[in-house]
Amino acid sequence: MSNGKINVTADNIFPIIKKFLYSDHEIFLRELISNAVDATLKLKTLTRIGESKTELGDLTIEIKIDKEAKTLTVSDKGLGMSTEEVDKYINQLAFSGAEEFVKKYEDKADGAAIIGHFGLGFYSAFMVAKKVEILSQSHNAEAKAAHWECEGDPEFTLEEAEKAERGTDIILHINDDSLEFLEEARIRELLNKYCKFLPVPIKFGTKEITETLGEGEDAKEEKKVVDDIINNPVPAWTKAPGDLKDEDYKTFYRELYPHTFEEPLFHIHLNVDYPFDLTGILFFPRVKPNMELNRNKIQLYQNQVFVTDNLEGIVPDFLTMLHGVIDSKDIPLNVSRSYLQSDGAVKKISSHITKKVADKLDELFKNDRKDFESKWDDIKVIIEYGMLSDEKFFARAQKFALYQNVKGEYFTFEEYKEKVKDLQTDKDGKLVMLYAAHKDGQHSFIKRAHDKGYDVLLMDSPIVSHLMQRLETSNENLTFARVDSDSIDKLIKKDEDQPSKLTEEQINTLKPIIEGSVDKAKFTVMMENLSSDESPFIITVPEFMRRMKEMSMTGGGMMGMGNMPDMYNLVVNTNHDFVNNILSESDEEKQKAMIKQGTDLALLSQNLLQGEELTNFVERSFNSLTKG
User: Do the annotations mark residue 533 as ligand-binding?
Assistant: First the structure.
């Protein structure tokens, strides 16, 4: 038996780094600039605590392209390295200088600001470069500059050199198959994507600006060439909420989404340092009818370095329709910093974000209810989705989730229950919440409910069936019923029973006549004793069948229900004179015509009469007017 250590050699690791470690080759620029930022922040720390005597001066990081030489250079004016340090941090693969620095100066340095943790980022350069050079001058004036060179294999050269300024130049000799990274537009795209908010100024070329000199009639414009700084080192989310005004948040939103013209409805500023580090700003946009259109607009940063806009796990699913930024050094990433690794911290952060959003919504509701109501229709899908998918959010949302009736009035659920409980509690003690999906399309049914003194909610979001199911299971003796799912007297049953003008024998005679005149596969004929002022024929959609069908179509309910054909009840009011006239008519053809006209009118009131059937109905109606 023998013991030993498994050795990972440069011969084995280089192909992995170059081809497999980083899923996207463009990541190399993010990694190199992140290293340059680290070197700059380390120098600032050492200068602040007196361990470096150098003058900080201009700390701008610069990116330069030389198409003729086929090189891309990343230059910083940070800590710099001696030959010994290059040998330690570059030649010892996966030794993270950032990790070592944070441990050494954890009481003095801003560890949250140091980006690197794996010590592999530098080697991502070899994905696009056939040769990489390092020219570095340490902040320690006594140290000689170092020049390192490697062609992507275990062989390298390291020697002393001359460099006038403190800092490090990383020079990439770009491969022939990666020449896209010598194009200014491509590099600018990557800088905008990954480095837009890094905490050190980053220069990429120059730009021409126009300055106004003087005032009044003496004012004149002068063009001037200045450094093109591509990033905002101090974005809004890094500042204290108390230091920002509403206009600052709107400006930041436009900075995040320059091609978006609509302003957000409101924002939520995240600023947590215990039990984990989390900052960010979330914006509530106006939600479009297709919820999927607005997803993946939240950007994840780690120490102001862009990581991803796919925040599955870290942000609850219902909040992926929000826009904005989240930044946390405590979010675990894979070695290439390209995606999240699942662990307990992620769940805690996700839970905290949910709570923070709920608290903010409650605050907005309490502070200015009228303004909150004016925005409700634009955010309700997000809130309702959250109530369905998150138990804790459902409980919190009871304070601010709103329900609108067809008159345009808004209520919390408890307020609405209090409003309707006296009139809309049936004989069995069950509170019936009447609702409509279309205020105009179901107007006749809404009117009948109003005539009884009842109130009707407008429930028209895509997931309303799921929400009602959730509310019913959370409230004992409460049910939702759409106004067109039955006659109003059947929806809210009271003690009194309506007598029928027709005898049982007459009803048994009439029912098969009507059944023989309609499509039995589509309609179930129901003879009911309704008030004489109710319509003679009413088309209703059974609540259970319709709701299960809707839930199945939006994910949920009973499997296969979404594909079932539409089924309707044809309710015949035995107390209406028109129904009695049908029974009295001796001419069979006239009898069928009366039934057809009554059925079509009932379908028309539900917007269900379409196509050829609608055309025939219109022609038949005009013909009857002409004959009359």
Answer: no
